[in-house]
Amino acid sequence: MTLAAKFGLCDRELISLVGGGGKSTLLFALGSELAGAGKRVVLTTTTKMGRFQIARADRVCSSADPDCLQSASAAGKPALLLTGGDEHKVTGPPPQEIEKLFTRADVDYIVVEADGSHGMPLKAPAAHEPVIPDASTLVVILMGIDAVGRPLEDVVHRLAEAQHLSGLSADHPMSPEDCAEILLHPQGLLRSCPDGSRLAIAITKVTTAEDIAAATRIAGIIAVRHPEIATVVLGAPEQPR
After folding, report:
1. Which residues pair with 43 in a beta bridge?
2. Is pTM beyond 0.70 here?
3. With contact defined as beta carbons under 8 Å apart, do 192 and 136 qualify?
4. What is the rounded distance in angstroms from the CA atom of residue 226 to the CA atom of residue 221?
5. Domain for residue 62, yes or no?
6. Residue 7 domain-assigned (yes or no)
7. Sheet holding 48-50, edge to edge
8. Is 240 domain-assigned?
């Protein structure tokens, strides 16, 4: 099954990726798949992306100039839109510019890395996070299944916020139920989803029988508490660290 089918993508989407556990990998995988299907695709970020990630892009635009993007997103390749940065990080346009870009008829999909997690598999947001364009049609919250079984302090970005949401100690070994509590807390990443956007949770790096059992448990909790949220399970080949 394609990623587009797993996430139930429509003909045009503005997709924002938040949380932890492989946002950049999913960004480029979605871009490659959709562009390979003949769609005009723009990839970008509203936060900061490691400069090394540029090497994964087929085509890069340094501005939102229409001619640049039109040529860059042609010929079955997604365009990576970047507008600034330094020797370590690159940045993209503000959410308002991304929303303006989405109104153009010559763009089918925009996929946005709208959050940072410092490589951690789980994320609890600070007050200013994530940075999701209001026009997003789909928001995907990611978590890596490798958070399960490890101490909270070793797997979460924003430890203080995660403890506030969950009431757990820093050395508490995370269960599937604990991960689901942070994912689904109304003051966590859920609070930032724009009105009218669809929501999915992607559980990544699922490879072993233990991973499958833990992911199935989390998906079951999501189905009971939020049946409107789709859960997508992705294996390690699609979601490497």
Report:
1. 80, 111
2. yes
3. no
4. 8
5. no
6. yes
7. 48-50, 89-91, 84-85
8. no
